[in-house]
C-alpha cells in the first residue's frame, strides 16, 4: 500500500551532516550544525546541569507518572519569569498563560496550531531569511507565509528601512514572527531603539507579535538584557506569543524542553486561552516529558544554581565573541580581500559570512569545511586551533 510513495531527498543541512560524518580527514570542520560546542568541537554539558542531574537521581520524591497536558506548573511559572522578568506586571496580573512544550520547535508548532484555530488572521510574516524550519511550523498549521525584508547583503547588517516598509504594508492583524535576539541565520539584531520603532509600528497597525526566543543570553551574556525586545512589547499592555527553547541556553537539546507563553489582555482571557491550548496539545502528544523540565525548574528556582547557570551562559557568549574576534583578526592579518568587520558586528551564535554557494562548495571540497550553502557560519563550531584553517579556506575561496 505504500509502494507509490516517492522518496524525498534529505534536507540539505542533514545531508551535509551525513557527509561530514563520512569524511575521514582529521582537518574536517563542522560549522553547519546549530549547536554550541567546546573549543575543541566537543558537545558541551553545562556544569550546573550535571549537578542538578546528580541531585535528581537521588531525589526520592521524583516520579515518572504523566505530567498534566500543560506540563510542569513550576517549570511554566519559572519560564514565564525568565523571559518576562521577575517583576513583570503581566505575570502579576495573571494575564500570561504558559504551557510546557517540546522545545522551541514544539512551542512554535503549538503556537501556530493555536493561532490557526483561534486567531482571525491566517498570514504570518517572517524575516527574509529566517531559520529554515520556521515556515514549516506555520505551513503545517495551514497558515500562509509572507516575508519581510531583514538582511541587507550590501552592509551585512539590518535592512531596517526595508523591514519597516514591509511591515507597514502588511494587512492589519497579520502575525509577525520575530526572533527575540541572536537572529538565526544572520547574526543581525535590531538595536533597542529600532525594536521600539518596530513595536510602535506593529501596535499602530494591529500586527500580532509572535516571538521566538532560542538564544536568550547568547548576545550580551545577560539573560535580562537579551529579553528586552520581548519585554518592550509586553510593557505596553498588548498581547503577544512567545516560544522559548532551552536547547542552546541550557544545552538540553535532546531533552526537548521549551515553553509557549501567551500574554493576554486579562486573567479571564488567559484562563480561556489555556483551556483551549489543552485541546491543541491533547490530540498531538497528550502531555510533555518530565526530565528536561525537572532540570530547568531545579535550576531556575534555586538562587545559587541560577547564578551558576547565568555565569555559564556568560562564558558561552564570551566564547562566541572571542571566536568572532579571532576569525576577524586572522583574515585581517592575512590581508584577505574584502571587509570582514561584520563578523565582529554580528551577534549570537551565527554569522552570515557573505560567502556565496560556490565559495562554500570550494571550501568544502578543498578544506573539508562543512557549512550551509547560504554562507552561515556557526561560530560555536570554531576553536582557537581551527580558526587559522577557516581563515585559510576563506582567503582561498575569495581569491581564486
Ligand atoms: N528557533 C530558532 C531561531 C532556532 O535557531 C532553533 C534551532 N536551531 C529553534 C527555534 C528550535 O530549536 P529547538 O526545537 O531545539 O528548541
UniProtKB/TrEMBL annotation:
PROSITE patterns: AA_TRANSFER_CLASS_1
Residues of the Aminotransferase class I/classII large domain: 28-394
EC number: 2.6.1.1
Keyword Transferase: yes
Entries under Pfam families matching the protein: Aminotran_1_2
Entry GO MF terms: L-aspartate:2-oxoglutarate aminotransferase activity; pyridoxal phosphate binding
InterPro entries membership: Aminotransferase_I/II_large, Asp_trans, NHTrfase_class1_PyrdxlP-BS, PyrdxlP-dep_Trfase, PyrdxlP-dep_Trfase_major, PyrdxlP-dep_Trfase_small
GO cellular component: mitochondrion
Catalytic reaction annotation: L-aspartate + 2-oxoglutarate = oxaloacetate + L-glutamate
Keywords attached to this entry: Aminotransferase, Pyridoxal phosphate, Transferase
Keyword Secreted part of the UniProt annotation: no
Gene3D superfamilies found in the cross-reference section: Aspartate Aminotransferase, domain 1, Type I PLP-dependent aspartate aminotransferase-like (Major domain)
Extra remark: In eukaryotes there are cytoplasmic, mitochondrial and chloroplastic isozymes.
Sequence similarity: Belongs to the class-I pyridoxal-phosphate-dependent aminotransferase family.
Quaternary structure note: Homodimer.
Name of the protein in question: Aspartate aminotransferase
Species of the source: Rubus argutus (Southern blackberry)
Amino acid at each position: 500500500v505504500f509502494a507509490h510513495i516517492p522518496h524525498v531527498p534529505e534536507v540539505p543541512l542533514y545531508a551535509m551532516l551525513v557527509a561530514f560524518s563520512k569524511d575521514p580527514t582529521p582537518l574536517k570542520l563542522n560549522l553547519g550544525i546549530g549547536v554550541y560546542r567546546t573549543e575543541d568541537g566537543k558537545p558541551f554539558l553545562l556544569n550546573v546541569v550535571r549537578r542538578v542531574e546528580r541531585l535528581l537521581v537521588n531525589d526520592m520524591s521524583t516520579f515518572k507518572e504523566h505530567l498534566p497536558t500543560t506540563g510542569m506548573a513550576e517549570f511554566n511559572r519559572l519560564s514565564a519569569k525568565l523571559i518576562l522578568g521577575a517583576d513583570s506586571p503581566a505575570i502579576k496580573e495573571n494575564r500570561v498563560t504558559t504551557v510546557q512544550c517540546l522545545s522551541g520547535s514544539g512551542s512554535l508548532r503549538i503556537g501556530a496550531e493555536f493561532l490557526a484555530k483561534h486567531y482571525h488572521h491566517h498570514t504570518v510574516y517572517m524575516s527574509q531569511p529566517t531559520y529554515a524550519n520556521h515556515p514549516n511550523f506555520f505551513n503545517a498549521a495551514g497558515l500562509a507565509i509572507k516575508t519581510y525584508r531583514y538582511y541587507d547583503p550590501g552592509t551585512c547588517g539590518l535592512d531596517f528601512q526595508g523591514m519597516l516598509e514591509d511591515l507597514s504594508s502588511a494587512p492589519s492583524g497579520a502575525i509577525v514572527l520575530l526572533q527575540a535576539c541572536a537572529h538565526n541565520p544572520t547574526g543581525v539584531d535590531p538595536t533597542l531603539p529600532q525594536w521600539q520603532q518596530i513595536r510602535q509600528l506593529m501596535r499602530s497597525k494591529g500586527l500580532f507579535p509572535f516571538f521566538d526566543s532560542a538564544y536568550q543570553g547568547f548576545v550580551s551574556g545577560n539573560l535580562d538584557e537579551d529579553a528586552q525586545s520581548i519585554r518592550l512589547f509586553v510593557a505596553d499592555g498588548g498581547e503577544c506569543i512567545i516560544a522559548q527553547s532551552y536547547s542552546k541556553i541550557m544545552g538540553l537539546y535532546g531533552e526537548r524542553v521549551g515553553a509557549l507563553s501567551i500574554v493576554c489582555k486579562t486573567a479571564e482571557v488567559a484562563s480561556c486561552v489555556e483551556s483551549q491550548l489543552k485541546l491543541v496539545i491533547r490530540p498531538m502528544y497528550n502531555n510533555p516529558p518530565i526530565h528536561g523540565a525537572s532540570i530547568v525548574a531545579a535550576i531556575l528556582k534555586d538562587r545559587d544554581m541560577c547564578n551558576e547557570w547565568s555565569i555559564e551562559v556568560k562564558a558561552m557568549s564570551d566564547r562566541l565573541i572571542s571566536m568572532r574576534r579571532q576569525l576577524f583578526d586572522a583574515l585581517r592579518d592575512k590581508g584577505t580581500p574584502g571587509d570582514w568587520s561584520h563578523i565582529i558586528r554580528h551577534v549570537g551564535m551565527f554569522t552570515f559570512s557573505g560567502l556565496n554557494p560556490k565559495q562554500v562548495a570550494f571550501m568544502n571540497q578543498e578544506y573539508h569545511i562543512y557549512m550551509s550553502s547560504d554562507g552561515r557560519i556557526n561560530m560555536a563550531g570554531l576553536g582557537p586551533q581551527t580558526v587559522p584553517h577557516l581563515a585559510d579556506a576563506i582567503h582561498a575561496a575569495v581569491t581564486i
